[in-house]
Write a structure and sequence with these properties.
The chain is α/β, with parallel strands linked by helices and 249 residues long. It is 41% helix and 19% strand. The strands form 2 sheets. Strands 2-1-3-4-5 form a 5-stranded parallel sheet, with helices on both faces. The longest helix is centred in the C-terminal third of the chain and has 18 residues.
């Protein structure tokens, strides 16, 4: 869902960009918002529009929204971000860490509103949470802190399992590295052996599950990732076929 803080950040930015200098007589311009997401089109995009409408910003009436979705393919994000810049977006709303980094790398001084970034300071998007600095604002997510808890819950339902396969996406390096650190710390405390299985695209899923079978994984932990969310039905089917108790991010 779009948070009030996110909507407020965007609206404040739009207000600053759209306001003419004091005493100036100018024709009003319609703000242009770029919306960049690593996932597929989802209810989140409509929630964002609804939040803006609630505050008086109606698409194609007094605001233009350019939406770009990478559908779980992180390699597309730089080109999609550059496309939004070429469309002269006045502000770019970027969902998750890699989308925010892609926007920052090409946006110049264009304001960026990040959403759901696990560690914006560690990712280099802001100087600090109290004083972000630069041209980036928005919301952060503490999802990385839940990775260890997810492993613990998985062990609660499969207490005899000693080896857990962890599905992760190296194409989403910053956020996934944070999740892996938390997962490995929890595994050490729980006395569980991890099998880290990389999947960069959906074509690698069959190979990944075959590796889990060969190495006798007893359960599966799927780390949160837009690509895994987009292909969740396939992952669920493969886990069921392998009879793997599973926890999904």
């Amino acid at each position: 869902m779009t948070t009030p803080r996110l909507v407020l950040s965007v609206v404040l930015t739009l207000g600053l960009l759209g306001a003419p200098p004091a005493g100036a007589q100018q024709s009003p311009t319609i703000p242009r918002v770029g919306f960049l997401a690593a996932s597929a089109p989802s209810p989140l995009g409509e929630a964002f529009r609804r939040g803006l409408r609630d505050l008086g910003y109606v698409e194609d009436r007094n605001v233009v929204i350019y939406s770009r979705w990478a559908e779980g393919r992180f390699d597309r994000l730089p080109d999609l971000a550059a496309e939004l810049v070429s469309l002269n977006a006045d502000v770019i709303v970027a969902l998750v860490t890699q989308a925010s980094l892609a926007a920052r790398n090409v946006a110049g001084t264009t304001p960026i509103v990040m959403v759901g970034v696990g560690d914006p300071v560690g990712a280099g998007l802001v100087d600090s949470l109290a004083r972000p600095g630069r041209n980036v604002t928005g919301t952060s997510s503490m999802a990385a802190d839940t990775a260890g808890k997810s492993l613990q819950l998985l062990m609660d339902v499969a207490p005899r399992v000693s080896r857990v396969a962890v599905l992760w996406n190296p194409a989403n390096p910053v956020f996934q590295a944070q999740l892996l650190r938390e997962t490995e710390a929890a595994a050490l405390a729980l006395g569980v052996q991890l099998q880290l299985v990389e999947v960069r695209n959906p074509n690698e899923l069959d190979r990944a599950f075959a590796a889990m079978t060969r190495q006798r994984a007893g359960a599966l932990l799927v780390l949160p990732d837009p690509m895994f969310t987009f292909h969740r039905q396939r992952i669920i089917e493969l886990a069921a076929r392998g009879r793997l108790p599973a926890m999904y991010g």
